[in-house]
Amino acid sequence: MEKIVSLCKRRGFIFPGSEIYGGFANSYTYGPYGVALKNNIKSLWWKKFVQDREDVVGIDGPIILHPRVWEASGHTTSFNDSMVDCRNCKKRFRADHLVEETTGQDLEGKADEMKKVLDEKIKCPNCGKQAWTDVRNFNMMFETKLNTTDEAKEEIAYLRPETAGAIFLEFKNVLDSARVKIPFGIAQIGKAFRNEIVAGNFIFRMREFEQMEIEYFIRPDADWEKIFGEWLKLQEEFVLELGVDKKDISFREHPKEKLAFYSKKTIDIEYNYPFGGFKELFGLAYRTDYDLSNHAKHSGQKLEYFDTETNQRFVPHVIEPTFGLDRSILVSLLSAYHEEKVSGSEEGDVRVVLKLPKNLAPIKIAIFPLLKNKPELVAKAREVFGLLKRKFVCEFDDNGNIGKRYRRQDEIGTPYCVTVDFDTLQDGTVTVRDRDSMEQPRVAVSDLTAWLEEKLNA
Ligand SMILES: [Zn+2]
């Protein structure tokens, strides 16, 4: 994990947030290659789940919604972390985590029982004393204040803790405008915010993060288990498209007693992270008609579907596949990271290479002149760069020796490096180095675009 974190910083994928001010816990900036990787993953997702499907449409809703949205969804009252403070050293801990680590008991949400266990069995991990405050709930939604012209009416609003809310609010508008027929889905990619107190592992858990979510509306009498299974299969497909090895994922069904009362089934797709093993990557939940019914109740609006074929009116049920975008980025980096002994070189010479799926690589082709100080090579390389960048995301590099440039592109995950040398000036061919095989065939510049296109789409 440290190796990924350091590569991400060294090569401009991910930087610690607010670093010049000493850092800011749980916040990160996607650098030049990180944002490119992120956009490629978003595009892959949008193509697979929106563009290529006739039954899913997209929206992009606001981050700050009407505060009553969160009353309807239950977040205002029940979206809590249980915390406990040590009276001696003043450190604060997640109470449910302390209890579970010590006793294996899962007492999430049961403050009194947790307090009892803490007072009987658990010493402060920081100072060793046993002097706990009561277990208190902290709401994880970020509060913000809306300015108004009337001071008395200043209103608390929240940054959305999940993207799904906005989708339910637009159910009716989409229905009235998009010619969708049940079953259909509404998809959204966007930021969500959780006021987490516990530090996360790199970008695994952050206060602000991006979700890719779909609410898939079905008839109340539909074979939901079949549709649930189809979505699970698609989610698994998407994980594999991120370059993840099948052996690194597993499925964990939430036990019945841990399910929210309205949910009939929830499955987490987990990834085998280098910290603590299998943990959540994506989620899939069958939420019945809970959300639409509650928003109908709180808003006073009918959120129903009228089936013109059967003349039936009903509140659709919903299946909700959720994908974490930041975790998608994390697992694609973890899966792509390889250290390889370089054959034929001195013993112990290792190259670091990101074997990202080619469609996800931030840069597809790097173009080098063999030598920086030969104007005729640089001019020709610039010409090749101009040709290729019309079709592909390219980078021109003439810094340092050619070996260093290969190393750099390997660590960025660039699938192909094109080098212009003295032979190019004679016979119009260039060497094209393959990131994974490290082979370097010569290809005529006139054939280069077609050759690369075929390879990149293979
Ligand atoms: Zn303490």
Q: Mean pLDDT, as a whole number?
A: 94
Which fold name fills CATH's third level, the topology of the largest domain? BirA Bifunctional Protein, domain 2
Give the CA-CA distance, first to last residue. Answer: 30 Å
In terms of DSSP E residues, the strand content is 25-35%
CATH architectural category of the largest domain: 2-Layer Sandwich
Heteromolecules bound? zinc ion
What is the helical fraction, as a range of percent? 25-40%
Summed up, the domain count is 3
Q: What's the number of extended β-strand segments?
A: 23
User: How large is the radius of gyration?
Assistant: 26 Å
Based on Cα principal axes, name the global outline. Answer: globular
CATH class designation of the largest domain: Alpha Beta
Pairing-aware structural class of the strands and helices? Answer: alpha+beta
Query: Reading side by side through the largest sheet, how are the strands ordered?
Result: 3-9-10-16-13-12-11
Largest sheet data: 7 strands, mixed
Brief description of this entry?
This protein is α+β, with helices and mostly antiparallel strands and 458 residues long.
